[in-house]
Amino acid sequence: MQQAKEFRQVYDLMDGSMSRVAQKKLIDEEWSEFHEAFHFMKEEEQLKELGDLVYVCLLSIHCYTATVLQLIHGKQKFKWW
What we know:
By secondary structure, the protein is mainly α. The protein is 83% helix and 0% strand. The radius of gyration is 15 Å and the shape is globular.
């Protein structure tokens, strides 16, 4: 968790609406890198890029409130049944 905090500080990704825009740009960038790796690179590189994508997605959750997470979990529960 300390690494995530340091990452967010280095890239100035503290909470707030502007941070969400920056997080979205990071997600877009990592998605593009994963997409390229998936189609043109070996599995090891695919996994590395997928890990980067998951990492920035998880970091972006910090820009949203716990209420949003509760809504997601509530909707997912119905999809799983």
